[in-house]
Amino acid sequence: MISKSTYLKRHLTSGISDFTLSPPLNITAETFTTVTEFCYGRKIQLKPTNVAAVITAAELLGMKEGDINLRDVAESVFERIVCVEAVTVLRSCLSLFPEVETTSSIVSRCIETVILENEDMDEESVLDVIVEMEHRDFESVVYSLNGRLENHDVLYKLVDLYLKENKYDKLTDEQKTEICNSIDCTKLSPLILVDCVQNPIMPLRFIVRAILAEHLTTRRTITEAATTTAAGSFQQQVEVHRISLREFLQLDTTRRQNAQLKEAMNSTYSRIQTLEKELSCMKKILQDHQAEEEKEKEKEKAKEKELENSVLNSERSASFHVLPIDENSKIRRGGRGSVSSSGFVLDNMIKKNNEMVKYKYNVNSSEGSCHEGNDTQKRATSFRHRFITGLKNTFKIPNSSSNLKDHHQ
């Protein structure tokens, strides 16, 4: 293992059996086990979660000499998987700062790969990892990206995002200035320059640099446009656009005020639209409420009409069914149709029939038993006939006195 590591060769001699690293290297036990297995010829397994740690360990231990060394093997694996698993590799680097960036620039290389695949840099997972970095680590990353990127628009977006997050209140002006110094304003597009000038998060020094860069860009654009014109017109255009820094700052201040005024007007207009929508909704609610009240009033009127009609109908029905009682139409006691008359006549008939049955039974009892069955049948038949005849006569008798006379006859 010593033969493959220049770091161990420097610190270990033949007379020393052990030594203490001061300060200790940023190498975990798992990573050191992988390094040891490689030194003894065993097959190692490199994956997105440990390839950055192995590369960092190889750089720290100086294992990059010879035809087959750990650094070259890990770098070849990194180049294959970084295009697919750049975010995973980037997240595994958070615990390896600052060595992971200062020794091999793995973090900046991962970010560069993501930028090449996605120019707008809207990968949320990558942005989340960047926000979690400490300001020293982030500063080393952006300075590394400064030399790698030809256009610094994405670098400005990264810095802007980092400052907008919870880091903004925790960083001092000097720290923010150091981070922003990694951005070369001459490598920013005109639109990004305008955004830099109007960004209140950026430190004042960076805003002044952006204003100067915008001024130089404007002059360069004017110069390039004027090359096709005559010399006289070109000189006139240069004199027109040749203004001092103070005038340019005043112009920029006016531009900012106009932008703020426009934004305030837009917000006021949107607020007015919101109020108009709310007012229309309130009007609709009031109209619906009034319509419901009118419906309730109509229902109450209909109920009152129905109640009046029912009272009138009840009075009419009472006038049709209630008649004055006539003295001549009354049913007198004992008269036709009275209960007493019919009951009295019926009782008299039953008594008369019973007496006749008893009489005939006594008269015929002496005749012998041979005629007993026939007599009984005759008595039953004559009794039914007399009973029905009596009922008929009962309802034909006008009063109780006539019934009594008929009964005695």
Automatic annotation (TrEMBL):
Its pathway is:
Protein modification; protein ubiquitination
Which parts of the sequence belong to the NPH3 domain?
148-217
Query: Quick check: keyword Metal-binding in the entry?
Result: no
Q: Which Pfam families match?
A: BTB (PF00651), NPH3 (PF03000)
Cellular component per GO, a single term: endomembrane system
Q: Which GO BP terms sit in this record?
A: protein ubiquitination
Where in the cell is the protein located? Endomembrane system
Region ranges (Disordered) = 290-310
Q: Where is the composition biased (Basic and acidic residues)?
A: 290-308
Membrane topology according to the record: Peripheral membrane protein
Keywords annotated in UniProt? Ubl conjugation pathway
Gene3D superfamilies (UniProt xref): Potassium Channel Kv1.1, Chain A (3.30.710.10)
| Record-stated family | Belongs to the NPH3 family.
Stated name of the protein: BTB/POZ domain-containing protein
